[in-house]
Amino acid sequence: MKSLLAYLLLPKDITRFEREYLAKMNRVALFFFAAHVPVFGAVAFANGTGAVAAMVMTAFGVAGPFLAMRALSNPRHVSMVFGVTAMFMGAVLVHFGRGLWTIEMHFYFFVALALLAVFANPMVVVTAAVTVAVHHLALWFLSPESVFNYDAPLSSVLVHALFVVLESVAACFVARSFFDNVVGLERIVADRTRALDGKNREMKLVFDHVQQAFLTAARDGALSAQFSRAVETWFEAPKAGESAWAFFGRVDPAFGRWLALGWQTLAEDLFPREVALAQLPSRFGAGARTFEVAYQPIDSAEGQLEQVLILVTDITEKVAREEADLVQRETVQVFERLMRDRSGFLEFFAEARGLVESLARTPLTLGDAEQLRALHTLKGNCALFGVSALAAHCHELETRLVEHGGGLTAVDQARLTEWWSQASQRIMRFLGEGAPSAIQLDETDYLAILHAIDSGAPKLEVRRLIESWKNEPVQARLERFAEQASGLAERLGKAPLSVRVDAGGVRLPRDRYASLWSAFVHLVRNAVDHGVERPADRQARAKGPATLDFSAGRTREGLVVTLKDDGAGIDWELVRGRAERLGLPASTRADLVDALFADGLSTRDEASDTSGRGVGLSAVRAAARALGGDVRVSSERGLGTTFQVVLPWPDDVPAPVRADARQTARATA
Fold first, then answer.
1. Which of 25, 217, 324, 568 satisfies CB 3.0 to 4.6 Å to 244 for a cystine?
2. Which CATH superfamily is domain 472-647 in?
3. Cα-flanking dihedrals φ and ψ of residue 559, to 5°?
4. By the 8 A CB rule, do 499 and 482 touch?
5. Rounded CA separation 63/80 (Å)
6. CA 232 to CA 296: how far, in whole Å?
7. What is the DSSP string of 454-483?
8. The CATH number of domain 320-431, selected from 3.30.70, 1.10.10, 3.40.30, 1.20.120
9. Number of neighbouring beta carbons within 10 Å of residue 388
10. What pLDDT sits at residue 645?
11. Separation CA 83–CA 203 (nearest Å)
């Protein structure tokens, strides 16, 4: 019984939609029944049963719901009055339409019962059914001829009543279904919304107590209104309808631009999902804090991208720990470098300071390409001399310049100056009074002066030879590069590497050639990273341990500094393809050589902290041409590559002592 009552009785509260719907249906029903007045009058007139009386009775029936609409505030109660009115109208029709068609007039009751389902309330149908049952039963006893056009037995009345019951049951089912699925839909939505809101509150409670920021973006990038508390704590709350890249762009404009480009690739679904996600930016800065961003795609039932969950994590402390570890390792490396080669480290320090000053000078006098070369050179030298923290920062800055274009901004210059200040402060703790003023001599210099004296060389020649001792021995430079090459090969998994050095006794003015040696490091890194194969690859090609030859000497062309490897050689067809992609000439070998030294060309698909930017070789050529020379390259696939820096021999530098002269001096000694 409780279940039956729960089915027949609607929930007590009435939604706004139901109230508006019933108000409308009640008005329609009132006009419908008001139209019965002339119709029933016509029926009574045709049957000779009293048209005026029929119209009066019908108007009396309309007065009931009219007064109910005025007096009752609950639209459901008004609808129930219409249920009674519908049956009253049926009784009037049967009474004034009695005669030949009396039995047919009863169809009105069945039609009316069915129509009452539009009120979406089973109790309207029940009210009507009870009304018609009481009416028929009472009149059957009091005035049978007013109900049927024949003397009907009780069984006929019961069959008639059975049909009313059956239709009432069906009408109740329709009314309740109509309420549950249409009229009561607002209630269902509200209930489900409350349930979802409850779950959302629970999830938000969890998210708000997790030290991460959660946002959700639609396929078009528009952020949803739901986000965790950390979003408002760390940043400003997203604006209504704001895109993810606009939101993050308010914190870090470069990150926002990168995200906009990457999101377009993700939304268009032109590339594999993993590739598109990998191209989205993953880290940005906001003041002194650093944040890491992760993306989780959410697909629809059809497998199409529908939303993206964006997870932002504050990694400031993690970055600080990593930098602290990096600084600690750097301190040990700097100390070891100073102990092994104090003079070389001091030269690097001076060159690095000059590069930082040129890059941080305001306004910038270097073009965008020159800035990238200088930054790449600074990064490479810092990495080779163990100043790892500054090298990592330079790589980060270099990445931004390459990916977003343009030159260094005032913010970039300030950051670079700060990074250099931090690095130099750490380094100065070990430098003490600076570089020693002693002249560096080796056995070659000793034998050379002995040979000059023994051979009776003119006093002026001997003087010039001694004066040349103030110049830097190139042997020391090349040995330093050799050591750096061996360390790099070990780090890249390409050891063992056999390195040979022969500077031919050449000495050069330190300051004049500092820019060349600063850029020469790119040839070293290029040879190890691009040229030298891994041991397994060399073994597969029946090649022994890799070798690298550094040499310098005076020839008829002037000063020639050579770096030769026996590695894989240059893939000229690959260079041709990259050159054509950049719009560079690529029809001849000379064109390919020029392309190899062009800014932005690299045979690597991805840049690393070692190579791949396409600016290292251009920096070497620029330094050589600034000294009046150039760089030559020869390479054979599978056999190796040779780079030669060819420069004019300086007039104020004596020729190096020939090898046979050194041997003679050694024998005499």
1. 217
2. Histidine kinase-like ATPase, C-terminal domain (3.30.565.10)
3. -85, 130
4. yes
5. 14
6. 21
7. HTT--HHHHHHHHHGGGSEEHHHHHHHHHH
8. 1.20.120
9. 20
10. 95
11. 48
Alpha-carbon distance of 378 to 382, in angstroms, equals 6
Amino acid, res. 401: L
pLDDT, mean of each 10-residue run, the chain (669 residues): 81 84 90 90 85 89 90 90 87 75 71 85 87 70 56 65 79 83 68 64 55 85 84 85 91 88 85 84 86 90 86 86 74 72 74 80 68 80 79 80 74 81 75 54 71 76 73 86 86 87 88 86 87 88 91 92 92 88 86 84 57 70 92 91 93 66 45
Alpha-carbon separation of residue 481 from 346, 384, 517, 570 (angstroms): 15, 9, 9, 22
Spatial CB neighbours of 514, under 8 Å, sequence gap ≥ 6: 347, 350, 351, 354
Residue among 468, 444, 487, 474 nearest 561 (CA): 474
SS3 8: helix
**Tokens at 359, concatenated:** 């890059």
Pairing label, strands 497-502, 546-555: parallel
How far apart CA 351 and CA 152 sit, in angstroms, is: 122
Buried/exposed code over 393-411 (b: 16+ C-beta within 10 A; e: otherwise): bbbebbeebbeeeebbeee
The 8-class DSSP code of residue 495 comes to -
Q: Helix H segments across 51-106?
A: 51-71, 75-96, 102-105
Q: Is the pTM of this model over 0.70?
A: no
Question: What pLDDT score was predicted for residue 19?
Answer: 87
CA distance between the termini of the chain: 127
SS3 238: coil
Could you tell me where in the chain the CATH 3.30.450.20 domains are found?
A: 210-314
Distance of CA 6 to the CA centre of its chain: 53
Q: If we measure between CA atoms, which residue out of 26, 180, 43, 21 comes closest to residue 116?
A: 26
Is the CA virtual torsion 65, 69, 73, 75 positive or negative?
positive
Judge residue 485's burial from the number of C-beta atoms within 10 Å of its C-beta, 0-12 exposed, 13-18 middle, 19 or more buried: buried
